[in-house]
Amino acid sequence: MRTRPLKVALLGCGVVGSEVARIMATHADDLAARIGAPLELAGVAVRRPSKVREGIDPALVTTDATALVERGDIDVVVEVIGGIEPARTLITTAFEHGASVVSANKALLAEDGATLFAAAEKYGKDLYYEAAVAGAIPLLRPLRESLAGDKVNRVLGIVNGTTNFILDRMDSSGAGYSEALDEATALGYAEADPTADVEGFDAAAKAAILAGIAFHTRVRLDDVHREGLTEVTAADIASARRMGCTVKLLAICERAADGKSVTARVHPAMIPLTHPLASVREAYNAVFVEAEAAGQLMFYGPGAGGPPTASAVLGDLVAVCRNRLGEATGPGESAYTRLPVNSMAEVVTRYHISLDVADKPGVLAQVATVFAEHDVSIDTVRQQGRLDSEGLGGEASLVVVTHRAPDAALSGTVEALRKLDTVRGVASIMRVEGE
Questions:
Q1: Going by fewer Cβ within 10 Å, which terminus of the chain is more open, N or C?
Q2: Nearest to 262 by CA among 211, 298, 297
Q3: Could you tell me if 152 and 290 are in contact, meaning their C-beta atoms sit under 8 angstroms apart?
Q4: Can you tell me the distance from the alpha carbon of 227 to that of 25, in angstroms, rounded to the nearest whole number?
Q5: What pLDDT is stored for residue 54 in this prediction?
Q6: What whole-number distance in Å separates Cα of residue 140 and Cα of residue 121?
């Protein structure tokens, strides 16, 4: 074993960063044996230096992250500060000054991964980022390395624990969205500002990364269709249950049937209770991968939190340090296919549409005609009369489940339905996946 340590600079010392530092200290001997050299925490960049950080020598703490990554003796920079800037500049600066990088920054990788990969290649350094998607679940490396000889056609997954917890609570307890969100916040699953989670931004960034690796093409955050779960109601959950389904916020990355394009999208969807993803409860993540030769694979586990994310970071750190000792680099960006990313309008799937209509003869025929005019075939229809606010009849709920159709055709159908005098409103639209 080499006695001279490999020096590690840590950018950020919050929930994840502090756990990375703790594991480096408590498992120092094991990590050294696995790598072939000891690790030394050479510096920790933070915003609030006065904060007490247990187990970290105050002499290592600095607010000058730039000076830390510019040091010529740093072997690996671990970036867990998140966001676009200054993270992007710090990472590229680290490459310029001879360090490899381990990052958990899904937002930056989805927004401008091309810049990071180009810099890593230019300076002959590693960029590893397993912790950017699905926490502790080994997912990116199997996609990037274990399945490198296969052809991945679809990636379907639950990649945000907060939203899965909310939907699970709505399904299991009958709670409304706001009530379930309050519980998630109280338990620490949701941030004080949960927008990134509940509006799908977090999952969309992960979908972009997954699609890029799975299909060997560049997919940016702007390429991913995104819908959150704030409009999902208890009625949607109940309707899904009647269909033998449950509702999940899914990240779906697909290769077109002709293999010449891809799509990436995030939205709530009904999936059959028989699908493996339907049983994913609480704040857990799971990703279902469909490959040509390997068949169907599922990756499951805790997708967030300090210890799980730190586990993924340390796994990357060990791999990068081994490469460092061997004077080699691991696989870089693979974007040779340069496949175009289709818009959501071209996605073909099934739909569940709930309409508020007048309860009188001929309404169903009018609705069916609109679907036919837009080439959207109806699979099932369920109609139930109900009383209005004055306790009288005259209103009904009409639930239509379609066969597979392009999203553009469904959008045209819904627009036409809203123009019918007999349709009081379109209560909800949800896709049906996983069949």
A1: N
A2: 211
A3: yes
A4: 41
A5: 87
A6: 19
Strand partners, 263: 254
* Global model pTM greater than 0.85: yes
DSSP at 411: H
Which residue intervals of 326-379 are DSSP H helices? 363-373
> Residue type for 168, please?
D
Distances (CA, A) of 143 to 308, 358, 392: 19, 51, 58
pLDDT confidence band for 394 (50 / 70 / 90) = confident
Q: Has 419 been annotated as catalytic?
A: no
**What pLDDT does 305 receive?**
83
Asked if residues 246 and 271 have their Cβ atoms less than 8 Å apart, the reply is yes
From the list 151, 206, 248, 419, the catalytic residue is: 206
Take residue 315 and report the two structure tokens written for it: 């796994």
Kindly compute the dihedral angle of the four CA atoms of residues 107, 111, 116, 117, in this order, to the nearest 10 degrees.
Answer: 110
Rounded Cα–Cα distance for residues 124 and 126 (Å)? 7
Q: What is the largest CA-CA distance in the chain?
A: 85
Q: Is the peptide bond before 86 cis (omega within 30 degrees of 0)?
A: yes
Average pLDDT, the chain: 95
Query: What is the per-residue pLDDT across 250-309, written as a single tens digit (0 to 9) for each?
Result: 999 999 999 999 999 999 999 999 999 999 999 999 999 999 999 999 999 988 788 999
The vertex-80 CA angle with 79 and 84, nearest 5°, equals 80
CA distances to 45, 88, 274, 333 from 91, rounded to whole Å, are: 13, 5, 44, 16
> Distance between CA 151 and CA 220 in Å, rounded?
21
For residues 273 and 434, give the distance between their C-alpha atoms in angstroms, rounded to a whole number. 10
Q: pLDDT tens-digit profile of 151-202?
A: 999 999 999 999 999 999 999 999 999 999 999 999 888 888 999 999 999 9
